[in-house]
Write a structure and sequence with these properties.
With 87 residues, the protein is α+β, with helices and mostly antiparallel strands. It has helices at residues 7-20, 28-36, 44-56; strands at 61-64, 67-69, 79-81. It contains 3 helices and 3 strands, in the order αααβββ. A hairpin with a 2-residue loop joins strand 1 and strand 2.
């Protein structure tokens, strides 16, 4: 049995994957698969929770149908990306 990643490890993985995907976004399952290997499905809830934390801090954007949404509106199919650069 493997040890489940802690929230800070999940947040680090989200940031690493969104930063590496310069153009575009990632699916939360990509993060779960990177951390959990073949046992990735139980990590989807914690990945989504970590995404909310990061979005509230302005470190990522949560997308629904290709458009940024507030963390409170997160439901269904989402994607994650690094924040859009302004200026």
């Amino acid at each position: 049995m493997s040890v489940a990643p802690v929230p800070t490890e999940i947040e680090s993985a989200i940031l690493a994957l969104t930063t590496a995907r310069v153009a575009g976004s990632i699916c939360p399952s990509e993060v779960a698969r990177a951390l959990g290997g073949t046992a990735w499905r139980p990590l989807l809830g914690p990945v989504r929770a970590a995404a909310v934390t990061l979005a509230r801090a302005g470190r990522i954007e949560i997308l629904r149908k290709g458009r940024p949404i507030p963390p409170e509106a997160m439901r269904g199919v989402i994607r994650l990306r690094a924040p859009a650069r302004t200026g």
